[in-house]
Fold this sequence. Notes:
Chain A has 204 residues and is α+β, with helices and mostly antiparallel strands. The first copy, chain A, has a single domain (3-203), classed as Maf protein (Alpha-Beta Complex), CATH 3.90.950. Helices cover 28% and strands 25% of the residues of chain A. In chain A, strands 1, 2, 3, 4, 5, 6, 7 and 8 form an eight-stranded mixed beta sheet that branches. In chain A, helix 4 (177-183) crosses helix 5 (185-202).
Amino acid sequence: MSSPETRLFLATTNEGKILEIRHALEDLPITLSTLREIKDFEVCAEDKPTVLENAIYKGMFYSRYSEAMTLADDTGLEVDALMGRPGVHSARYAGETATYEDNNMKLLQELENIPEARRTARFVCVMALGFRGRLIKSFLGTCEGLILTKPRGIQGFGYDPLFYIPALKKTFAELTAEEKNRISHRGKALERVHDYFQYSLEAG
Amino acid sequence: MSSPETRLFLATTNEGKILEIRHALEDLPITLSTLREIKDFEVCAEDKPTVLENAIYKGMFYSRYSEAMTLADDTGLEVDALMGRPGVHSARYAGETATYEDNNMKLLQELENIPEARRTARFVCVMALGFRGRLIKSFLGTCEGLILTKPRGIQGFGYDPLFYIPALKKTFAELTAEEKNRISHRGKALERVHDYFQYSLEAG
């Protein structure tokens, strides 16, 4: 049974994320709207100790701005040589107003004397589906890689130019959107979101 | 090149975990010892806000009791209807001296009025490899499932009798050690530990 009116509200203004989500769900009959279309909104604090909790609270918080199911995400980069940092602080690693470049520079500095074999890291992404202030379900995706000693590539955003996938011999910033969605933390979480909606739509 | 003297110290006294780890690494030429063989040891605090950090600090902390590489783990059960709880508190959910049964009872009580479709949960396991007080690498594994309304099965330990895998129509406590290792959070983390040692051994 088709449900042509299924709507999903994306609780983000980040164009990079919106593109990745749109791409991952494009084969489903879902109409997307985003936080960019909301004139005045309060920004949800991201002060929880885990990526999971940040995603959950964002999903619940932003669901007040839409009648639709609301999808929020939080992402962390966990670097072994930094004992899991920046983790939940990844987006603001170099400070509250840090640019992607500031964060990448800080990461390179902190890893300055760490040899390649010890630069292992993983990206963790949690997507949280909220509805009327409540959490419906969370979706997790992870991706293992290495932190390079200098940036490579111009695609993507955030730490993508430093995050290297040995099996592909490329950084995230050297992958097309399609290639990245197939293996990335957010891509894998989105695959689970996709399966959830596909199942719900099929079940009517 | 073979390294017959490779040794690994397991930073746990939990027989269930020791069996799972022994099984997962049995094809490798690694000699295992465990915390059970240490007469007097200080117990590492597990007070970090994330499963990752608890595992890392345990791996570093217990590496003082062995000259060998030291493998520690931490595990959390993240239940959507409880907004990610018990999470990092899973082992002591019903209190400091809680038994597995106490924890399972508390979980069932907290989910009392939650219908099946909303009882989604995931297990998260991080294994951390420490050496001489330092973290070498962390390994993550996850497993998605549902929390039943009453326990089923007698294998395994912890929350296993309540953790149901829809694709297998069984709880973790209804699986053999082999079946569980193939799909569980700890099994998947151990697969990564296995690959790490296999690669290191092959590289000499």
